[in-house]
Amino acid sequence: MTGRVIVITSGKGGVGKTTTSANIGTALAKSGYKVVLIDTDLGLRNLDLLLGLENRIVYTIVDVIEERCKLKQALVKDKKNPNLQLLAAAQTRDKTAVNAEQLKEICDILKEDNDFVLVDCPAGIEQGFQNAVAGASEAIVVTTPEMSAIRDADRIIGLLNTKEEITSVKLLLNRVRPNLIKSNEMMSVDDVVGILEIPLVGIIPEDTGIITSTNKGEPIVNDENALAGKAYRNVAERILGEEVPFLDLDEPKGFMAKLRNAISKLKVKV
Amino acid sequence: MSLFSDLYNTLAKFFRNGEEQQGDASKSVATNRLKLVLMQDRTNLTPRILEQMRSELIDLLSRYVELDKELLDLNFEQEGDQVALMLSIPVIRAKDEEEIDAAIKEHEEMLKVAAQKVEAEEAEDETTEEGTENESDLKENSDSESETAEQSVESEVSETSELMDEEDKAEAEKVDAIAKELNDVPKIIKKKEKKQVSAPEEMNVSSNNNPFKSEDKVEASSEN
Predict the structure, then answer these.
(1) Count of structural domains, chain B
(2) Residue A22: CB atoms within 10 Å
(3) Reduced to 3 states, what is the DSSP secondary structure of residue B32?
(4) Shortest CA gap B89–chain A (Å)
(5) How far does A121 lie from chain B, in Å, by closest CA?
(6) What order of strands is seen across the sheet that includes strand A138-143?
C-alpha cells in the first residue's frame, strides 16, 4: 500500500502544530488506520510529551539517518494504540543534522506500510520547514484567528504553493473563541478563510482541556466529552474523505442564552 | 404606539447586549490591517513604493483632469486568485484641450530637464568623488533644475526665432506668441516643482501619523 504523507505546518510557533499532529494521528489510529507521526523539530522535540511517550524513546530520526539503528527500531508504539507509532526528533541536535532528501527517503519508506505519515513541522520557514515538507504531498496549515499567526500562515501557504509535490493545502483554524467572535473582538472563521482563501479542514475551539491533556500526555481526542476532542475527530474524518459539518460553536448553552439568541435574531422594526 | 416601541427597544437592547455594544472596532481593525499587510507581503510592494506609485499616478492623471489629490485612493483588492489594483480618482473637473496640451508640453519639458540633469550628474560623477546623497542635496538639485529649465526653454526659443526671422513677418509674430507661451511654461514648472518638493514632506507626515506604525513596533518587540 501507499499511504498519504501529510505535513502539519504553520509558520508561527505556538499555534498548535504539535497538538494538532498528536490529535489527528491518534484519531486516525483509533479509526483503525496505521499511522506514523514524525517529529521534525530537531532540538525542540515535544510530540513525545503530548503522546506521553517521552520515556520510551531510545532512538531518534538522527540515529536512523546516521545509521546507528534501523528505521523500525526507532519507531515507538503508542501506549494504547499499536496502530500509532512515533519517530521522535533528536533533542541534542539541530536542524542541520538532517537534510530534505533524507527526510523524503524516510517518508517514502514509511508510507509503504502505513496509511498515514504525519510530519510535525517546526516553526519558521528555514531548513526545518524545507525538510519537513520534502516528503509530503499534502499539507495542513494550522493558524489561530490572530493577525500574526494569519500573516505567517499566508507566507507558508505561498511557499507551499511553489512546491510541485504538494497537491493539497488545507487550513485548520485553532483556538477559536466563539464568545470573542460574537462580540466582534476576534476575527471570525469566515474572516480568516476569506483572507487566506484555502479550504478549511477543521475549526478547533479553545479548550482548557488541552492543558490538562498535555499535562497527562494524553491527546484530547481520547476524551469523548471534550469539544476540542470532538472537533479533532471531525478533522480526521474529513481527512478520510467524509463530509462532516463543522461544529456550531455559536450555539449558546443554557436556557437564558438560547432565549436571548432567539430573540436577538428577530429583527422586527416597530 | 411610542410607548410600545420604547418598550420593544429596551427589551431588544437587553437581549442583544454585548452584540452591538462592543462595536466591530477591534475585529475590523485587525481584518483591515491584515489585508493591507498581506497585500504588501504578497506583492512585495512596500508602503514607500506604493506612495511613489501614487504620486506618479497623480502627476500623470492631473495632466488630463483636475483631481482631488487628497481623496485619491490607491488600494489592492483580491478577487479569487487575482490581485487587482483599485484606483479611485475624485475628479473635480475635466480639462479642456488647450490645458491638456499645455500640461503635456510642460511634462515633456520636465522630461528634457530630467534628462539634462542626469547628464549633468554623470558629468559630475566623473569629476567628483562619490558622495552620499542626502535630502538637502536633492532639494538643491531641484532648485537648480527649475533654473536650467528656464534657461533651456529660453535658448530654444531664441534659436527658433532666429530661424524664423528669415521668413514672413506674419509667421514671426506667431512665433512670438508661441515664445510668450513657452516663457510662461517655466513659471508653471517652478510652481509645480515647489509643490513636488513639499509633497514628499506631506507624505512623510501622513505616514508618521499612521496609528498602526508605532503599534506594529510594540507588537513585534513584545513577540520577539
Answers:
(1) 2
(2) 35
(3) helix
(4) 26
(5) 20
(6) A75-77, A84-87, A35-39, A116-120, A4-9, A138-143, A168-176, A200-205
Residues B109 and B75 in one domain: no
Q: Is it the case that residue B192 has pLDDT exceeding 90?
A: no
Q: What pLDDT score was predicted for residue B67?
A: 85
Asked if B49 and B112 sit in the same domain, the reply is no
Sign of the CA dihedral A249, A251, A252, A255? negative
Could you tell me if B107 and B131 lie in one domain?
Answer: yes
B-proximal residues of A, 112-151, CB under 8 Å = 147-148, 150-151
Could you read off the pLDDT of B18-67 as tens digits, one per residue? Answer: 444 445 568 888 888 888 888 778 877 777 888 888 888 888 888 888 88
Last residue of a domain, one of B74, B94, B114: B94
Percentage, residues of chain B above pLDDT 90: 0
CB A15 within 8 A of CB A121: no
Question: Residue B189: its pLDDT value, please?
Answer: 42
Q: Residues B104, B181: one domain?
A: yes
* Share of residues in chain A with pLDDT > 70 (%): 92
Is B5 domain-assigned? no
Question: Measured between CB atoms, does B180 come within 8 Å of chain A?
Answer: no
Instruction: Return the pLDDT at A103.
Output: 96
B62, three cell numbers: 492631473
Which of A 249-268 lie inside 8 A of B, CB atoms?
A: 259-260, 263-264, 268
Instruction: List chain A residues with CB under 8 Å of B7.
Output: none
- CATH code of the domain in which A96 resides: 3.40.50.300
- B30–A155: do the CB atoms touch at under 8 Å? no
Shortest CA distance from A269: residue in chain B:
B5
- What is the structure's pLDDT at A206? 94
**Residue B155 exposed, middle or buried by CB count within 10 Å (0-12, 13-18, 19+):** exposed
Examine residue B181 and state whether it is found in any structural domain, yes or no: yes
Quote the pLDDT of residue B124.
80
Q: Is residue B126 part of a domain?
A: yes
3-class SS of residue A6 = strand
| Cβ of residue B3 closer than 8 Å to a chain A Cβ | no
Q: What is the pLDDT of residues B118-148, one digit of tens each?
A: 888 888 877 765 444 444 444 444 444 444 4
